[in-house]
């Protein structure tokens, strides 16, 4: 008997990541990635938008079987695949209902990587204008492979004072902030004063 091992397109080390990777592998093998993504989106939306459902699913006093049935009902309209039913059963059996949102988020990250998207988190002291964003996007092209797509997410942190911090797919980290430079200068000055 031969087993096909579907390598995860990104590195994952968390327990939630293991669940997301297992779901990704099963969905990829059965060509159900889009269907699983839709089912997870339905569950995520229900958990984030409906406090009653979230409280019911996360409450450890409620029976696993009742929670399982609630998740199945949420997805009935989307015609759940066997893969998703099996995933919900595994989550239920292992009592991991409180991890559903994080598993869903990790699955989305895996799916983005599968589709050739590279997530870039750009933290700046102030919002970047369109020209700066365009120039940054052009500069970041050298960090990705041909055919990959940059997905730039911006974040503001005024404590940087100036400059940028760029995180590429959780693998590479580039700190070009003024705060880092000031910290380095302080460190050098403190060392020289302590001589």
UniProtKB/TrEMBL annotation:
Alphabetical list of InterPro entries matching this protein: ATP_synth_OSCP/delta_N_sf, ATPase_OSCP/dsu
Transmembrane domains' residue ranges: none
Cellular component GO terms held in the UniProt record: membrane
Keywords: ATP synthesis, Hydrogen ion transport, Ion transport, Membrane, Transport
UniProt-annotated location(s): Membrane
Transport keyword on record: yes
Pfam family, one: OSCP
Molecular function in Gene Ontology: proton-transporting ATP synthase activity, rotational mechanism
Top-rank taxon, per record: Eukaryota
Similarity field: Belongs to the ATPase delta chain family.
Protein name (database record): Oligomycin sensitivity conferral protein
